[in-house]
């Protein structure tokens, strides 16, 4: 893991050469739910969905290697909670790989490990920030297909317990030094696509 993480931080590893999410497919769960999406006539239509939930698989890849690549697929990667990124980690998706939040999750999709909030005032200078985190590529959506159709994803909370006040983002970062978010497509999402607080060295 240390060797991979060092190569990732140096930029010496091409995205496609990162550990693939597909190598952790044994952590994938299957679920069934209903989604409302615009039909060919533009009117909302409800449809049954049998999807694959990749949260645990992506987390396992990051925990083991510090990096993961999501190749393009014909079906989305669903998340049922946030993927937590530690220092030095890199999550890269193919430009047309779609990552969706499961209905009713009501959390962010990605966050840093030591997330804190400066919602109520300045941060304690003694807090150690996460460092050198990258999110790149992919089509990210919380399935907010209309102002009235949020699929229960009204907030981008830090976790199911809503432990960080003021969290509303799809990609949520607070207390980070060295953060790169590039080439992402954010659509049909909660109020903030990328929410930052107390972040330095941001690209």
Entry summary:
This protein has 203 residues and is mainly β. The protein has helices at 2-10, 55-65; strands spanning 29-38, 44-53, 67-70, 77-79, 83-85, 90-93, 98-101, 110-112, 130-136, 139-141, 169-182, 185-187, 192-202.
Notable characteristics:
single chain; 203 residues; mainly beta; seven-stranded parallel beta sheet; four-stranded parallel beta sheet; 2 helices; 39% strand; globular
Q: Could you describe the 3D structure shown?
A:
- The protein is mainly beta and 203 residues long.
- 10% of the residues lie in helices and 39% in strands.
- The chain has helices at residues 2-10, 55-65, and strands at residues 29-38, 44-53, 67-70, 77-79, 83-85, 90-93, 98-101, 110-112, 130-136, 139-141, 169-182, 185-187, 192-202.
- Strands 3, 5, 6, 8, 9, 11 and 13 form a seven-stranded parallel beta sheet that branches. A four-stranded parallel beta sheet has the order 4-7-10-12, with no helix packed on it.
Question: Radius of gyration in whole Å, from Cα?
Answer: 17 Å
Structural class: mainly beta
Terminal Cα span: 25 Å
Range of strand content: 35-45%
Low-confidence stretches: none
Major sheet details? 7 strands, parallel
Oligomer: single chain
Shape: globular
* N-to-C order of helices and strands: HEEHEEEEEEEEEEE
Q: Count every beta strand, where a strand is a DSSP E run of 2 or more residues.
A: 13
Could you report the average pLDDT, rounded to the nearest whole number? Answer: 90
- Helix percent band: under 10%
